[in-house]
Amino acid sequence: MRISTRRGRDRGDRGQVALEYIGFVTILLFVGLAAIQLGVAAYAANQAGTAARAAARAASLDEPRAGEPAPDPVAAGTAAVSGWLKPQVAPAGGGGGGVTYTVTIAIPSVIPGLGDGFFGTATRTSTMPKLRPQN
């Protein structure tokens, strides 16, 4: 009677699971980084909109109240954004009794070696009517 051992047949399959695991982990990491990058891009767009509204709101005041300094729209827009983002706040015309400001933020990259702006920029514009201060 002959006892069969599986040793001889399995030698060609040695390490196959490890290679499959490495391939799966690579794909999983790529999908995870893509999801995080998408979230960072959405966050940058949200912050650009917030900064544009803050800058337009600060510029909408014709005159400051008595004893208060005039608000700086660029400083207000910059202060409304997280510190690690670098917004570019600029007036975008306006007219007809309103003020318009545009904010552009380079989308940061979560992948090492790729600089900010590799994935484009997030630009948002906001318009506010001119307001008169109430005494």
Structural class of the secondary elements? alpha+beta
Tally of helical runs: 3
Low-confidence segments = none
Helix content: 40-55%
For the sheet with most strands, the description reads:
3 strands, antiparallel
What's the count of strands?
Answer: 3
Q: β content, as a range? A: 15-25%
Radius of gyration: 28 Å
Query: What is the overall shape?
Result: rod-shaped
Describe the structure concisely.
Keywords: Membrane, Transmembrane, Transmembrane helix. This protein is an alpha+beta fold.
Structure overview:
The protein has 3 helices and 3 strands; from the N terminus they run αααβββ. It is rod-shaped. It has one domain. The mean pLDDT is 83. The longest helix has 44 residues, at 16-59. With 135 residues, the chain is of the alpha+beta class. β1 (87-94) and β2 (98-106) form a beta hairpin. It holds the Pfam family TadE. This is Septum formation initiator. Keywords: Membrane, Transmembrane, Transmembrane helix. It comes from Streptomyces xanthochromogenes.
How are the secondary structure elements laid out?
Blueprint: H1 7-10, H2 16-59, H3 73-79, E1 87-94, E2 98-106, E3 121-129
Antiparallel strand pairs: 1-2, 2-3
Attribute tags:
135 residues; alpha+beta; three-stranded antiparallel beta sheet; rod-shaped
